[in-house]
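Lecture 7 notes: from sequence to structure.

We start with a single chain of 119 residues. Read the sequence below before looking at the structure.
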Amino acid sequence: MSYTIKYNQNENHIDVISIDFSAEDVPGYLKDFENIMKLVKPKFTGTTDVTDSKSVLSPEVAAMLAPTGAMASEAGQAGWAYVTKNPIWKMQLKRIFGRDFADAYDTYEEARTYLKSLQ
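Now the structure, written as tokens:
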């Protein structure tokens, strides 16, 4: 598995770590994501850390993951942030999820500081 996804109920926050995510990972991820969406409370936040990924998402995988943005919005997210220093990742994430869904930060600490201000 090239990802981990965990929900911290006390902080109402989802942490995703993704390393070289492939099409084979998507069905399991979507199921895990849907299950977590049933647990979150309104104004939840999330981070996706792709720092250790060697490559960006393939167009196929990006298209398969795009619905997660709508799922999170419908579940009442306050904000989502990506952690990466890679400018190509940042551009791709904006293209997949839109400009209003998430921001990208160089470090996890920067992302969490921003997200805590939204709760």
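The longest strand covers residues 3-8. Keep this in mind for problem set 3.
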